Amino acid sequence: MSSTFNATQSVVVPFLDLKQQYRKLEQGLNEAIQEVLTSAHYIQGPRVREFEQAFATYCGVQEAIAVDSGTAALHLILLALGAGPGDEVVVPTNTFIATAAAVHVTGAKPVFIDAHPDHWQMDPRLLSGAITPRSRAVIGVHLYGQPLPLTTTMQTCAEKGVSFVEDAAQAHGARFEGKRTGSFGRAACFSFYPGKNLGAFGDGGLVTTDDTELAERTRRLRDHGRITKYGHHEVGFNFRMDAIQGVVLNYKLTFLDEWNERRRFWATRYRETLKGFPLRVPEAIAHTEPVHHLFPVCCDSRDALATFLATRCIETGVHYPIPLHLQPAFRHLGYTKGDFPVAEQIADQVLSLPIFPEMTEQQFDHVCDSIADYFDQRRS
User: Fold this and answer.
1) Per-residue pLDDT of the chain (380 residues; tens, 9 = 90+)
2) Strand, coil or helix: 235
3) Residue 247 burial by CB count (10 A; 0-12/13-18/19+): exposed, middle or buried?
4) CB under 8 Å to 305, separation ≥6 — which residues?
5) Would you tell me how many other CB atoms lie within 10 Å of the CB of residue 311?
6) Strands (DSSP E) along 114-167, which ranges?
7) Strand 88-92 to strand 205-209: parallel, antiparallel, or no bridges (unpaired)?
């Protein structure tokens, strides 16, 4: 598949088109926001509680605690689980830094684990060896919107007696064996950063759990440890969700399944159309229904491909170019290059292609035709 490129007729393909999403939802969102402005109840309150209840129902859990970011959600749930100095928490090295940073700020030590060579998620075969008597929890990231192989992961955690926490920041609405992410671990953490499948008009996060005691402590910790207006059971934080984010997310939630279905459509098309090119994609995991927050490919000439696509007005991303064990922020942990070779290879080669619900056939064809042109030029 190849095309004759004409720069004057170029199709622009953003990595994500939030402007178009807003235009389609503008009236309903503006009305919801105006209601908050009129009420003058700007932090937490009834609108945030409505969203918490709706999202708990959506995930199939009893409790949902809204906070001001996904990082705060991870931080608070680790504190609620008792993580602190002297403890360890196992996390994947192929993920965004927030997963491990939340461990660090509790005083616990992140213990990294390599990616699986086929599906690029945390390798469950290595999990047992990473858990020690000091392990307080395992955080499994549903990376790219693809659920982990949860049966093996949860079985290992149960056998070792450690809590399993889902980092579902990229997996709103994804399913494993018919159940949504957010309903498997002792608790789960979501991010509503604007670019997520369900994104706020700013930052936002949430914890889901069926553990009422864990939920109660997490609620206290997000609001200065408060049990009454001026009664503070413990020292907590100011990690509360704004009411505007609550109404925006509650309104958008009604469209999430539709948006995820469109992402699955484009992901399937990418897999079919890009067959035969020297690109690798992560293998699908059995019994899962991903939501394709990202569509990553691995390419031996990643940077050259990204540069070429940019000349065709196609925006791409790199998630993530430096594995966490090689980040300067975690140099003190003593990891070196070569410790996690699979994640390191992915980091050197990964490129995220545009994928979003509003993507058009013309935009999709332009991406795939341009990739074909790139490889045609390399062969000539």
Assistant:
1) 545 555 545 899 999 999 999 999 999 999 999 999 999 999 999 999 999 999 999 999 999 999 999 999 999 999 999 999 999 999 999 999 999 999 999 999 999 999 999 999 999 999 999 999 999 999 999 999 999 999 999 999 999 999 999 999 999 999 999 999 999 999 999 999 999 999 999 999 999 999 999 999 999 999 999 999 999 999 999 999 999 999 999 999 999 999 999 999 999 999 999 999 999 999 999 999 999 999 999 999 999 999 999 999 999 999 999 999 999 999 999 999 999 999 999 999 999 999 999 999 999 999 999 999 999 999 87
2) coil
3) buried
4) 299, 351, 371, 374
5) 12
6) 135-141, 163-167
7) unpaired
- Measured at the alpha carbon of residue 113, what is the angle toward residues 109 and 119, in degrees to the nearest 5? 145
**How far is it, in rounded angstroms, from Cα 17 to Cα 144?**
18
The DSSP letter of residue 322 is S
Amino acid 215 reads A
Which of 40, 56, 1, 72 minimizes the C-alpha distance to 269?
A: 1
The helix (run of H) or strand (run of E) holding residue 267 is: helix 256-273
